Amino acid sequence: MSTQTSKSIFLSAQGKLLVQPVTDSYTVEGSQCLVRVDYSAINLCDYNFFYMGLNSFITGFEMSGTVKRTGPDSRFQVGDAVFGISPVVIPMPSSHGTHQELVVARSELLYKIPAGVSSKDASVICMPAHTAADALFNVIGLGLPAADVAGIDPVGKGILIWGGASSVGMMAIQLAKAAGLQYIFTTASAKNHDILRELGATHCFDYRSRSVVEDIQQAQKSLGIILNLAFDTVGKGVMGPADASNLSTPELTKTALGDSEGLRLACTLPVHQDPAFGMCTSYRPSGNVNAMGAPQDPNSAIRIRNVMEHLLALKDGCLRLPVVTVVTGPEAGIEGIQRVAGEFVLHQTMRSASRLRKHRERLACSACRQRKLKCDRESPCGSCVRRRDVTSCSYEVSFDDLNRDRLRHTQAQARLEHLEHLVGLLAEQRSSTTIGVQYGTSAVQLPHDSDTGERTIASSSSRSDQAESGATHWSAMLDDIQALRSTLDPSEGNDIDEGDTSAPQADVGMGMDVMFGAGLSQTVSIEQVLSNYLPSRRSTDRLVSTYFRVRSYITPYIHSVQFQRQYEAFWSDPSAASPLWISILFSILFIAANISRTGKENEIPGHGFTVAAAQCLSLSQYFRPKAFCFEALLLYLHSRFVTCLEISPDMGALISVLAHIAMISGYHRESSVPSLSPFTAEMRRRAWSSFMQLDLLVSFHLGAPSRITLAVSDTRTPSNLLDSDFDEHSARLPSSRPDSELTGVTFCILKHKFMTVFDKILQYALVNPSHEVLNARIDSLDTELKDLYENLPELYQPRPIESCIIDHPQLIVARLCISSIYYKSLCVLHRPHVTKYRDKSIRKCYSASSALVTDLVQVYEECKPGGQLDTEEWLMKSITWHDFLLGVTTLCLVAHATIQIAEGFHINQLSVNLLLERVRTMIQTENSEDGARARSRVLSIVEATISRLRAQQSSESMQITADIQVSPNGTEGRSWKQGEAQQYETNWDYLDELLDASHHGIFTPAEV
After folding, report:
1. Chain segment 630-653, per-residue pLDDT in tens
2. Segments forming the whole domain that contains residue 548
3. pTM exceeding 0.85
């Protein structure tokens, strides 16, 4: 099919919005439609998704237009006028962003424009209406029988809608009225009350009033009713701490309902502080039971569609639409997006400052810094000479102190001007663009070839309360204030080039940037990739041999016998090989180049291999399922854990892509693809099991929900077989070997069993159950975990590392990893109850964390040159390193908790102190820039705990030697005096910040 070119608004990898031509075939499949866009709505997420790690895509998620072409399963006809959404996917195909002339959208997310509604007005309906419908009919559970949506009986019931003048609030009021609720309470500024009453509100309250909560409670008493349904459309105070004078809007909403029973609450943002609130969204993928991080009814999307189609079909209409303001041209569209996102002034004021930025003086050449190697500062340095790469050896020159001060103040002035602009907007009491996280309120038009004039951009001006949400809300200032602090105080973030960052960054130059569309020219061919990165046949053979020989890191979903045949065929005709298979080869070379080090540098630098693997994946459009796609991307992610201490959010984004590919390809459900050969089915089981484990571990450490739900999978656990036991020609699989027999997949099988229990523990920690079922559920999960651990095959039973001197490193690593999962699971399960002084949880956390830390301290020592595990240096990277930090922080938490209590279980303070001393030395020894901020924060906790334990021991010693007083009658009595040692007050909030399971990130890099 021929390609077409049109203008688009593109968000670059550097966060710049550009007017850029796009060329695409705009192919439609299944239920998809090709829509000629008339208007595309501006949304806050058009720009702010950049701060979530998404870039290099055509922006826009809402639109209206005319159907030009349909897929075979589409329910629309060519020529239909439609509106709808095109939700974000990772990565974003060029044909899906709505800020362009043509867009490919799924028909189930499109609606016909009703009679009497213009295309301009229709473009801003979908996201606020979907969000409101999701809150009322999915999260809260209202019903609309006329739309075949069952739910709560509305007779005599009411709802509180906080923020009724926002776009979502206006839609929610109208939907609540359509659902038949008798009482509709809402908050808004007084000037909007008449409008909201016209929409259906029965009682309006001024949110600015100091007595707004009491007024709402008094109104309920006067009517003799008790409201137990509420929808907060604002979410103020959710994204950061609420100030002392104002509670967050979820807190205000819940307080206004009083002590009502059976509360059903919804919010447009996740309210981690109060799990009673369910989060609503404008889009829930049909059948996705874990969308937005919460269990979901697979019929949620169907209910929203039924509600929307019913309301749109009414003859007299139902939904009152926001007022839409129109601006002209794509350049004005960019300005509109920047204004809605609250970033326009920052870009203008920072423009001159950005030209002045210079890096501080480096103590290593650029090549050594990129590879994280020591540099002798010669010219060229010894490392570059040994790598035969002297042309890359260069040093950056620093500013002098005067210019450094000028730069710092220029940056500070730019940020201050931006803050002043935001405060000024807060002071302006005038109607302006509605801004919200879950809904869009503007529309972009780009010129068609057939247009005689320029198309326009529409921006809705609904009657909203700007003080409640949006770019002028105080939460929008948090990032700027933090950046200002780091600019004015050079001691903060002095190891970072351009200001401190709270989250790990992508590995620029290591392939991750290529995966997201940066640094890869469209003209690069697979032949150029091979020419640039593939070493000689002899060197490649050695690395491949190393990968399959060092079996502790080998991935079970790469069948060694099959790979050898494919490898020989590749060298016979490299041009005939799939780029995805070539990506697998480069990932294997990267792993081998890193795990084979024994204290000296490799002759072949490994970083080029992972760049090549990423380029092969990108050239193959890895986000579209095809042969080798799932395995190639999975192995690429596995390879990234060989060298890095931090797990970057970009890895989480790629895991989301993997989850999508797995679901589309049926890896999670064997029953959906019954015609597979025995060999293919078994290899898919291995790949699915490996991905399930990786997803849980990475999601846990990133503080994000897992992408898959094990309950929907019927794929069996892999069989314990050697690769030589079966191949592509096997008519059936042989019987599985016993778990006590070590094969390349035994560890994966045992780990799979533990991860299923770990998943249950994470789900339990997220749900935050009530105290009545607390003990029973904890004990049940603890018992299940204990039974699994105690029934491990003898070969995998835990044992001291000094008793493993004749064991293969593969076996030692397997034992350590299984033990780490067991101890980590116990910490996650019991940690929330340590601060409640639950004796059993304190004991469990103490034994688990001390064992985990002890094991990993020993492993760290043995991974050094000459140790038992000197070939397994990769083991103390990424996930294992985060397990270590989790164990250390949990141990410190237990130490502080036991000091606070007079009775009950007490730790061995001397042994804990000695262990923490070793931990301190270990953290101080690790000098990599990767993960430095996390180490610094944990180190401060360790040092504080050591000081407190010493103070406690000193206090007890002083008490024991207290004065012995003699009574007048000659009898002796002991008077126990308080010691004079300094006493510390435990900072529970700080410890909980690092170990908060309720936020689904027990130890998240973004927080540490």
Report:
1. 999 999 988 877 667 667 777 778
2. 512-706
3. no
